[in-house]
Structure formats: C-alpha cells, structure tokens
C-alpha cells in the first residue's frame, strides 16, 4: 500500500464501503395479527424471473420470527421525512413495544399478502417467503415480489425522480443521506 494508493479499512467496518443503501422497513405480522417490523439496508434484487429480492436479517430479530410464522412480508422504501421512524424501527424491539403506535406510522392492508405495508412509505414491495439461506451470522430471506407500488409522481421513466423522491439512504453508523437532484447518464 502506498501513500497515494489505498489505506486499509478494518474488516469490522469494510461493509460500509458498499453504502449508502436504500433504507426500508420490513413488516410482518405476529400470530395475533399485530404488525411489527425492522429497519434494513441490506436489501437487494436477486432474480428477475421470478422477481426475487433478498433481505439480510439476523436470526435473533423478532421480525425474522414473524416472517417465518406468516410466510410473507412487505418491504417499505422510506423517504427522508421518516428518518426518526427508521431509527425507532431499527433500534427498538417489537417484542417490547408497538413500533407503529410509538412511531405514529400507519399499518395499511396490503393487496396480496397478509402483512400490512406502511401508508407513509414512498414505495412498497409485497413479498411471499420464497427461501431462506443461512450465511454466517445472518439469514438471507428471499421473497418473491407479488405486488409493487409507489406514491404517484415519484417515478419517471421507470426510475425514481430524484427531484421528487427523496429516498432515505443509510450511510452507516446511524447516519443517513439522500440522493442529489442530478441524474447522471453516460
């Protein structure tokens, strides 16, 4: 390593080199029909046919248990206006509190899955549990997207319009940013 080249990054924080990431709240239901969820940034599409997305979840998380019980979940893309709610859903356990009551967010009935979506979200993906893959200290929860919808006006030509959709992005270490207004095309 030269002074003009690279500097070493500790392996414990090396994953931050892959950030920022879209911030979402993953929502599912308990056996009594009560919704709960968790903030996640480790979310990615993994297949087009069928349309599959993955969420990396620690198996000790309450939301993971709910997804296994319910067999479905929603992925709710957040705007910058929901940073406090993202923090609450990411730092408190649904075993201890009702996150929807505490945050003031609205759990709204979904179109195709039992799990509700967040009314205040920018966009929603409704997913049925497709597969789980154990990887180290996390489980890769793979969901088949059954429905997807977004708030009117936030998409242009099939992608987010950054002038309208201020998508909350997780930078790491409890820090967030959003995208700029400029779209860069090659």
Structure description:
This protein is mostly beta strands and 186 residues long. It has one domain: Electron Transport, Fmn-binding Protein, Chain A (Pnp Oxidase, Chain A), CATH 2.30.110. The chain contains 3 helices and 14 strands. The chain has a 7-stranded antiparallel β-sheet with strand order 3-2-6-9-10-5-4. The protein is globular, with a radius of gyration of 17 Å. The mean pLDDT is 94.
Q: Main traits of this protein?
A:
single chain; 186 residues; mainly beta; Pnp Oxidase, Chain A; 7-stranded antiparallel sheet; 3-stranded antiparallel sheet
Indicate the structural class.
mainly beta
Mean pLDDT: 94
Tell me the number of helical segments per DSSP (H or I, 4 or more residues long). Answer: 3
Considering the protein shown, what is the CATH homologous superfamily? Electron Transport, Fmn-binding Protein, Chain A
Give the number of domains. 1
The parts where pLDDT drops under 50 for at least 5 residues are none
Query: H/E element string?
Result: EEEEEHEHHEEEEEEEE
- Sketch the major β-sheet: 7 strands, antiparallel
Relative helix content: 10-25%
Rg of Cα set: 17 Å
Q: If you consult CATH, what is the topology?
A: Pnp Oxidase, Chain A
CATH architecture: Roll
Shape: globular
Short précis:
This protein has three helices and 14 strands.
How would you summarize the topology of this molecule?
Layout: E1 21-22, E2 24-29, E3 35-40, E4 43-47, E5 52-57, H1 62-70, E6 72-77, H2 83-91, H3 99-103, E7 107-108, E8 117-118, E9 123-135, E10 138-150, E11 155-156, E12 159-160, E13 169-172, E14 175-177
Antiparallel strand pairs: 1-13, 2-3, 2-6, 4-5, 5-10, 6-9, 7-8, 9-10, 11-12, 13-14
């Amino acid at each position: 390593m030269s002074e003009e080249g690279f500097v070493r990054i500790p392996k414990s924080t090396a994953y931050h080199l892959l950030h920022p990431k879209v911030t979402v709240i993953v929502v599912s239901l308990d056996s009594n029909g009560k919704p709960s969820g968790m903030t996640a940034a480790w979310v990615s599409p993994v297949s087009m046919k069928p349309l599959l997305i993955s969420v990396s979840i620690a198996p000790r998380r309450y939301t993971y248990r709910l997804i296994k019980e319910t067999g479905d979940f929603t992925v709710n893309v957040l705007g910058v206006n929901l940073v406090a709610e993202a923090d609450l859903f990411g730092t408190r356990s649904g075993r201890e509190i009702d996150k929807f009551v505490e945050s003031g967010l609205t759990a709204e009935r979904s179109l195709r899955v039992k799990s509700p979506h967040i009314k205040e979200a920018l966009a929603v993906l409704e997913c049925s549990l497709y597969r789980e893959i154990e990887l180290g200290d996390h489980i890769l929860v793979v969901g088949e997207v059954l429905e997807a919808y977004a708030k009117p006006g936030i998409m242009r030509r099939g992608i987010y319009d950054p002038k309208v959709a201020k998508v909350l992005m997780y930078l790491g270490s409890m820090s967030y940013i959003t995208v700029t207004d400029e779209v860069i095309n090659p």
